[in-house]
Each structure stands twice: as structure tokens, then as C-alpha cells.
Amino acid sequence: MDLTAYTDTVPEAGQTLLGRDFTTGFGGKGANQAVIAAHCGADVYFIGTLGRDSFGDAISVNFSAVGINTDYLERSDSPSGVAHIWVDGNGENRIIIVPGANHDIEIAKVVSAISDIPELAIVIAQCEIKQEVTIAAFVAAKARGCITILNPAPFEELSPQLLDVTDWLIPNETEFQSITHTNADDDSNLANFRPGKNSIVTLGSQGAVLIGSDRTLTRSSAPSVHVEDTTGAGDAFVGTFAYCLASGMPSIDALKFGIKVASLSVTRKGAQSSYPSQAEIKTLS
Question: Is the pLDDT assigned to residue 285 strictly greater than 80?
């Protein structure tokens, strides 16, 4: 669940400021990516854990409302995960995630779910759950011939074992810098990111760059829009990109379409609340 404060200027240490607005809305990186994929028209299964609390109840109901299958959604006695978000006057955000029940997910249940889901094509994960769980999930997914996508946020050091079973790594430019200790504005840094593997680095208002397994770079710009709130835009991109790949779209076309959807989302407040409907998405294609 996202707890978002909107303010013209974010406070410094020891400073108290007045905000403009506060909202509580549906969020979580995995949940956001699942919701936008469902909006695109994908058959989505959510594997995860919610707390036995009011947030968990609301999230579960929301998943069902947007058509996400919750057969593999567990509940635990830990509180549901939350994100505390500050959005400044430029629409840029700062986020602290408290995982809570996210870390209660069990490896055996995840592997069983991935083995059971019919016609599974793509498995997406983030760093909101423990890496050992994601590794097991990706190993099971690849055994079925599925594509694996990792969005390394909230950022933490990534294990070599996880990277080995990740087909597409999709960081933003800040996460890219944390992973490589280099900047994403240098083509040589990008080209040498993951030789032999595919990656995408999202660049905010500058669009994104696809790094092929052969080190080729394909840049795609973002349309110029009025930015209201960037929260959830990266998730909108990842979920849309995954849907497009699953639909058989070439990766470069999937990149461009993901940027279109993400760019529309930043013109509205919130994460899932900013996402275009299926009807709106159809007008973008």
C-alpha cells in the first residue's frame, strides 16, 4: 500500500514542512506491474504474501477487481508491505519501502505455483522479496521455458546466481549506477553492462535504452508531457513491456510501447491510480 505525501519542497534533516496533499493508494512494485499487465489484457497470476490486516484485505479485493488471479496469494501475521512516498513540486519521488509480509513468502510455495500455472510465459520479480526466493522462482520458470524479468528495486546488491537466471534486467538510471558504479549517460558503460544478456535501463523523461545481448544499444525517447507524479512509472513500463513480450511483440517495439504507457501514467497522481485503462491503452497502439 502506498502512503503518499505531496509537497512543494521535501524537508531536510530536522526540518518540518507543510505538505499540499496526502493519499493512500494501491501500490507495491510487484502489484503495480501485475495491475498494468492486467490492464493491457494479460492473464496475470500474483504470487506473494499479504498481512492479515485491512491493507491486505483491500489489496486482495483490488486484485480480484482488475482480474488478477489470487490462487497463489498467501496471508501471514506480519503487516502488509507499505511504501512511504514523498512527491515534490516537480513530481519527483523519494520512497521508503517496509516489506512486512513480503518477506514471509515461502520458496516451496512459489516453486509449486510456477510449476502449476497454465501456459506461463513470463515471470517478473523485484527486490521487495528475498533474493533466494526469486532465484528459486526463476530456476523453476526457466525449467518451463519462461522468460524471466528482474526489476532490481528497491536496490540491493544482486547475487551472481540471481543474475545468471535473469533474462531481462530492468533498472532505472539510479539503480544502474548502484549496480555498476558508473553513469548511464556513457554508451560504453551501457554496452558493457551484461554482455550476453538483455537489459533495459529506464531514463525517466529521456525514455529508455535497450541493451542487446550483443552489446548493441537501442534508445527510445519519451514524449514530452506535464509531469504530475512519477510514482509507479517504472512499474508501468515493466508490466507493459512484459505483456508485449508475452504477446510476441519484438523487444524494441515492446520498449516503445512501454514508454508510451509509462509516460501517460506520470501525468496523473499515484501509482495504480495513474495507470491507463484497457480502453486507453488500446488508443496508444
Answer: no
Residues shown for the chain:
285
Mean pLDDT of 216-231: 95
Residue 227, in any domain of the structure: yes
- In terms of residue numbers, what domain contains 167? 29-79+101-284
pLDDT digits (tens, 9 = 90+) for 253-278: 999 999 999 999 999 999 999 999 99
pLDDT at 161 over 80: yes
Looking only at the bridges linking them, the beta strands covering 208-211 and 198-202 are: antiparallel
pLDDT, residue 106, reads 96
The catalytically annotated residue of 2, 186, 235, 253 is: 235
Q: Would residue 235 show up in a list of annotated catalytic residues for this protein?
A: yes
Structural domains counted in the chain: 1
How many C-beta atoms surround the C-beta of residue 131 within 10 A? 17
What is the structure's pLDDT at 32?
A: 97
Q: CA 282 to CA 173: how far, in whole Å? A: 29
What is the rounded average pLDDT of the residues 212-241? 96
Q: Looking at the domain assignment, is residue 150 inside a domain?
A: yes
CATH number for the domain that contains residue 244: 3.40.1190.20
Report the DSSP beta bridge partners of residue 125: 150
